[in-house]
Amino acid sequence: AAMDTPEPAPTDTVPPLNTSTPVEASKATSKPENTPAVTKASVDTAMINKRLVEMGNLHFVPNSTELLEESSAKFPQIVSFLKEYKGKIYITLYGHTASYGSVNEQEQLAFERAKTIYTRLVRNGAIDSSLCDYKGMGSRQPITDLTDEEHIYLNRRVEIKVRIKD
To answer: The whole model's pTM is what?
Structure first.
């Protein structure tokens, strides 16, 4: 008669990734055995976020979802960079506005800006739509309090943040 092999003691095993919360554990999916697991060691989200910061936020024409010319020019570079990690990272887009208009108007415009970038990233094959979300932050997180046009445009932006895919 074959005996069941006892489970190894916890000190003999490496803890699995992404099981720190019930939400993360509930999202776990099975993968074919020959598919390499994406681990925290294989994707350096701190490096990716740092590189995205170096590329700069995407800035917009006032009261619009239209990118400024400089942001349109760098968009292909961001697309190429994100394609390298497609399917391995989860992306959140945060839309922001300057502090003009009502809070509701600011939040709606911020949401529409983030949604615009989401749509463009998906259309250009940079991201999986199921691995991205977007949020409108309104004017709650300004980069600058200066109100001259030379500085206020910094607040009309979309920021891209990444984390390990659950």
So the answer is: 0.72
